[in-house]
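Dear colleagues,

As part of the handover before I leave the project, I'm documenting each prediction I ran so the next person doesn't have to rerun anything. This entry is a single chain, and its sequence is reproduced below.
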Amino acid sequence: MSTVVKVIEVLAESEKSWEDAAQQAVNRASKTLTGIKSIYIENMEAKVEDNRIVSYRINAKISFLLE
């Protein structure tokens, strides 16, 4: 039996950290996907206002098993 994995691209944002943005992406994806196996962070950026980081953004790929 072979395993097939599908990959989706997601964008997520957090006011706390890049790690929190990644966790939010996984949490949201898990509402409609099962068998999530990994998240690959492709890009990170931060939004700045008045010389302060106000939000953290990630562009990521989430992989999951196809049933």
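The first strand starts at residue 5 and ends at 14. The CA atoms of residues 29 and 46 lie 22 Å apart.

All the best with the project,
I.
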